[in-house]
Amino acid sequence: MRFYKLIFLLGLFTAFCLSCRKEAFDDYYSRPDDLESPIYTRLEEEGRFSHFRRLIEKAGYMQTLNQAGYWTLFAPNDDAVNRFLQEHNYATIEQVPDAIAEQIVRYALIYNAFQTNRISDYQSNLGWQEGLGFRRRTAYYDGFRKEKVKINGTEREIVVGASNRNNVTVNFGTPYYVDGDNNNKYVTYFHEKYRQFNSLTADDYNFFYPSTPTSNFHFMGGSVAKADIIAENGVIHEVDVVTLPRPSLDQYLRENDEYSFFRDSILNQFFVTYEYSPTASKTYEYRTGQVEEVYIKVYDPLLAFSPNNENFLKEEDNDGQQDGYSMFIPTNDVIEPWIRNVFLEHYRTLNRVPKGVMADFINTMLWQSAVWPSQFSTKTNLHEEPARFTKADITDKQMVSNGFFYGTSKIQESDLFNTVYKHVILDPEYSLMLMLLEREHKRLVINPGTKFTLFLFSNSLLNRLGYSYNERLNEWSWIDRNGNTMGHGQTQTRLARLLYSHIIETPNDELANINNTQGFIQTGDRALPGEFIKWNNGNIYAAGNERLQEPVQIVGTAKFGNNGRVYYVNNLLEFSNETAGEAMARVATENPNVSRFWEYVLRSPLYVANDRVITGVAGGSLYTLLMPNNDAVQQAIDDGVLPADPATGDIVGKFQIENFIKYHILTNVNVAADGNQDILSAITLMKDENDESQTVNVSNAVGNLRFIDRKGRTIPSVYNPDLYLSDRIVLHELNGYLNYNN
What we know:
Largest sheet: 8 strands, mixed
Distance between the termini: 130 Å
Number of helices: 22
Shape: elongated
Helix content: 25-40%
């Protein structure tokens, strides 16, 4: 009996202790008295959201917003909802369909809680980045819809989903669609902090919503009336507008037929496919209970982005907070005649235009960034071009869910289709030259700020001269005049050099009268000059053409771009493989007035007779060879600078000859009397006793080229409009000699 009594007392004590511990536990973990109510209840307490609370109920989100969570809600007040009812002819809230109520609520609901101190910051992988945020991901997404589309030429009604990536391979080979990513839509807002950090103006926002009064905190088409209403499970920002989910760029194009030519005849025709997705089909079955084959609408990876992707670049999970896409699309009445008159000048139909060229055209209208109106001239597309529009050129402007849409009254003035480059990119007969330009010099010739002349060589000309391109293997080859075959690497290197001789910077249109004048000019651009070419009444020569006695001639008439002109030619401007020794020997034969200098070179240890090269002069590099004429050589002998005998055995005499020759060879430069004042001095082959290279100063005016030696003497070259050319070498007769002694 005593044992049971002890057990009973122990039980009472245990119950008492447990009761005390439960009371302490409840006190510690119970809801604090000063904690704000959950969002739904908080709306009721504020007293201005009775209509919106009813929409929340119809949408089935009352419980969600009245329990734990972490949300931002842009809640329209009663005045805003009343305006919405009137605009959509709803007599009462009850007439609003549940599906519409759900769209309104979910599109107003943002993942994570953002007060105004963070709403304009970007939530990056490395932490908050101040002042970069103007968009947030909502709880709303479209899902799938039935559409009539063509698959393999047959029209079918299928269930279509949107790609949620920019058609890049992710997740070990899954392209364009990532399972579990719902492609949630974004809302756009415009906070004063974001505006200031990005040097924007109130007009940037009001351009989209001109009737909205200026505010420090805009939300879509309205303003935030009261910010930072704190709730237990998030933050409420009171807004004065009801916003239905905005379409994506893809959806906006689909809904507006004034852009149907661009949409149907170009974009959908050539850059959209529908890919069956087993994972999307399972998702559709889970959501709807229906078994269907679901296809994903996929945009070609040649495009800057996929207009139906709501996720921006997705290089970071939240990068859509700081940026979106922009499209500048011309209306049908603008784009159709341009396509017909410009784009299809050399093609019958669009389906004959190479896909890469078509993609280049589309990408002139696509920006991988949100371009505010004040940023038209600063933000660039994939072609590194600004948006060349004024506000007056914009006929339609929309903030859509994944960026900005601009309808335009003119075509983007792209450098691709306005400069001299357009005559290459839009003519199939020059597709091989286009390929070469795209590999190396595209950026150069599409620069509208620099004037160029291009000599265009056709595919048929290349083929006639033994060049061919294997598209399947992506390889070049060349069969020379002797029947020898050159492989891909060597051929591509050769063609790259040839190409540069067909591009000439002509700031003053120096080649305008090439058919009835004579002259010479350096090819390439001033920053990286190429080889000299010359012309004489329509016959054009590079060094190789002169040796082959095969001049280049212009066929047809010149055409123009906004940065110069193009000539069509019947031959290539060939380079020469002549050595420096061979070049000097040839010039001495053509011009006996420099034969004595050549005699000194020929007898010098610098000359290697077997290879006909001059020691120190590397083949294929830039040189200027100065050849004092016979009188100048005699003067050098008289002055004791040269020995009288070119074949002298005297050590001092040999030393004099070697330095004399080296001091007349300028390295890494081609100099001619073209007025190029950028060349002020040149390094010679000669070095002093300290092994330092010696220089010659240059004074260059058109038709008057002079050199200043170490003694300060000015020696003129003999002007010759029929310039002596060799393998990246220019040769001049000097009316005097350069004295290497100081």
